[in-house]
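Hey all, sorry for the wall of text incoming. These are the two entities for the joint prediction.
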Amino acid sequence: MPEFEPKIVAFVCNWCTYAGADLTGTSRIKYAPNVKIIRFPCTGRIDFMLLLKAFANGADGVIVSGCHPNDCHYTSGNFHARRRWMVFRHLLDFVGMDIRRVKYSWVSAAEGAKWADVVNKTVEEIRKLGPYNEYQKVAKLDFEKEVTNG
Amino acid sequence: MDDIRNKAKELLENNSVNVVIGFGNGSENQTRAIFVRKPEDTVKLIYDERCVQNLSLYLLKHEVKHFGKIAITATLPILRTILQLASECQINDGEIIVLGISSDGKLVEFADFKAIEDYISTQNIDIKVEEKEFIKKIEAMSLSEKWAFWQEEFAKCIKCYACRQTCPLCYCTRCFVESNQPQWIPVAAHQLGNFEWHILRAMHLAGRCINCGECAKACPVGIPLNLLTYTLIDSIKAEFGTIAGTNAKLDSVLSSYKFDDKENFIG
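and here's what came out:
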């Protein structure tokens, strides 16, 4: 039985974190390959439901990252996002979702090393938590997994 | 009650309004919303402890707007909804006439929305004690207990959307849940579709819910889904200092921000 490899989906903004992740690559910093990066115009664009869609499609963890406060390309997108996550986290916790599986961070275009760090830490934490079976049962993904694993 | 009937009659007689929305007798021992358009019909208006519906639901319906100028009899939750609708630019001050009903069934007249704000500030707008205790009970559960509790509750959902239809603040003419290109929320009443629907509903009412409890009353299978939005009321009040339905010029919680919003989970 191979060790559990977490699947992480990262929702990042175009202007800071995506460029930051690009810098991680051009700086040749090696980091965990478990992450699939999805680029958005702004963290303000990241609908809360997209996070649930990631889990419903088999993610074990989610990273949401964008510009530091006051650095937003559109001035206030990340401030709106911050409020949304404050409310959303409370709701998720209330319905019993594991909010440790959703990591938020601010990573600027100059913080290539920080991005590698965020991903590595998240992968390690999710590896400890294990696969998100509870949600995947609801999304009926565990059944498909059994079939494909033969 | 006579003072409310007389006022409604007077308004209809001198053509100040074309329709009065109020409570009337329904079938069995139930009450229902009635739309009084003739002065002599104002005798049908009633008010007693059975009259708990949030009538402000009808304020934005074009079938009702079609009648002309509207007067509405308003208990506390209705007054709060009116202010919330005003802060969302759905009703303008002076557009409707509000006939307030005090807790002991007396007529309270309001000159403008400011007067409603002042009245509400003197009232108890908290959620009920038993609801508060229920929320505390759920919050005290472990993660897996909470998950199991809500999954069991959501499993009853038949996706009738009565909670949406009865909510006076769910007034979008096209709901996200009907968006099908791409299909945003699964249509079928299976576990995932139900879960996503209830999260979506709660998030879209975050900072807007005025705890009238219509959604839970309308639910044919008895899901305590009002708790989802009620639990957000306290946290939003604590974090952003906002209480929906207390001010006609309130900034929407999720479409406004402060530079110094405090959180402790973003690294």
